[in-house]
Design brief:
This protein is α/β, with parallel strands linked by helices. Helices cover about 35% and strands about 15% of the residues. The chain has 12 helices and 12 strands. An 8-stranded parallel barrel has the order 1-4-5-6-9-10-11-12, surrounded by 4 helices. A two-stranded antiparallel ribbon has the order 2-3. A hairpin with a 5-residue loop joins strand 2 and strand 3.
Length: about 375
């Protein structure tokens, strides 16, 4: 009888929009789960080394990590490259510098501050994203088996080094935005074909194996960036299920300028809850523009289709995002990408992105920062703004 009830419930999830609420009520899914709030602050040590001053909205100087923690942030994401010394000069100017020693020192500081730590493995010497997944220089000409061995060894060595100094991550990304695979061309996949999915899943499992061995309590995240395209998102995680790939959490990027409107994100999250009812989802990257000043990549009003490129536009996006994500029980984490950008002091990067949560001119926290910090309800009561 129990098996029959279970089967009927699963069928309901596939044929009715009410399946989400049915599963939630019957199994109490995600009720009481901790909501994690944070951001990718990989360049914060570089800013602090340059003497950059961070300020609250009223202009008072603050310690960046203390300020974030007071406002409810509890986890910091940090990227790790294989050997960023080999990265192109242009990429170094964009912030590619996070080697193991850099990450180890920063992670120790995070632990001292009582913050959780998400480690983001870029299996490359430079940026790894949907448009590029370059094989590290030291791994070139490797066979599939050798590449998998290198992923395992690099992951294992890195995690052991962090664990040895008391900086073990609670969350680990095995790859960064690997929608189209990783370690190209060997592990590149095509969503309309059957090519290389087995290779990609072997690569992921190689990293996951090292994570399980060194950090058995850590949760493993697999990160893609097509939150605005359900067909690709579905295909990707279906393939991982078919290959029995080892991971815990679905990680998504959602940027309004690239991934369509909030309604599309909502539909993707609803669909994931139906298709992967026992797996949490985290938005591991999000951001929106407040300006295009000193921006080498965008012209005025570029990406203004859904939100004005202004402080008010960024605030509007953030308020709507927080409200939307609160509707989805399967979403248990929210991370802003590069919130620490702050050009009010000495130069750290070439050009400005203007997608952070601190004003590049003044170093003051933007209104969006305070809207964003409401998501998990942990912000200390009594704080201004």
């Amino acid at each position: 009888m129990k098996h029959l009830i279970f089967t009927l419930i699963l069928l309901a999830t596939a044929i009715t929009s009410q399946g989400q609420s049915i599963l939630s009520e019957v199994f109490n899914l995600n009720d009481g789960k901790e909501k994690i709030l944070g951001g990718d602050l990989s360049l914060l040590p570089s800013y602090e080394a340059k003497g950059t001053v961070y300020r609250d909205a009223e202009g008072h100087a603050v310690d960046a990590l203390d300020f974030l923690k007071q406002n409810g942030w509890d986890c910091i994401r940090v990227r790790l490259f294989v050997n960023p010394a080999n990265a192109p000069k242009m990429n170094k100017g964009e912030g590619v510098c996070q080697d193991l020693e850099y990450v180890k020192a920063f992670a120790m500081k995070l632990k001292q501050k009582g913050l959780k730590f998400m480690l983001d493995f870029h299996y490359s010497d430079t940026w790894a994203d949907p448009g590029k997944q370059f094989i590290p220089s030291d791994w070139k000409d490797h066979s599939v088996e050798a590449l998998c061995d290198s992923i395992y060894a690099h992951t294992l060595t890195s995690l052991k080094a962090l664990k040895a100094v008391g900086a073990e991550p609670e969350l680990i990304q095995v790859g960064n935005e690997i929608t189209n695979g990783m370690l190209w061309p060997v592990g590149k996949i095509n969503h309309t074909e059957e090519d290389n999915w087995d290779i990609l899943c072997r690569m992921i499992d190689s990293g996951s194996k090292a994570c399980r061995e060194v950090c058995p309590k850590a949760k493993i995240i697999i990160h893609t960036e097509k939150a605005g395209d359900w067909n690709i998102t579905r295909r990707f995680y279906d393939e991982l299920r078919c290959h029995r790939t080892d991971y815990d959490i679905i990680g998504l990027s959602y940027y309004p300028m690239w991934h369509r409107n909030m309604g599309v994100l909502s539909a993707t999250l609803d669909s994931l809850e139906l298709r992967e009812p026992f797996r949490d989802v985290m938005i591991v990257e999000t951001a929106a523009y407040y300006s295009h000043e000193n921006d080498r990549w965008s012209k005025p009003n570029t990406y203004s289709e859904f939100y004005p490129i202004s402080v008010d536009g960024q605030t509007m996006f953030t308020k709507e995002l927080v409200a939307e994500l609160r509707r989805h029980k399967n979403v248990t984490g929210l991370f802003w990408w590069f919130p620490e950008e702050n050009a009010s002091g000495s130069e750290v990067t070439k050009g400005w992105l203007n997608r952070g949560l601190f004003d590049n001119k003044t170093g003051c926290a933007l209104p969006a920062f305070y809207e964003y910090s409401k998501w998990n309800g942990k912000r200390i009561k009594g704080l201004k703004n």
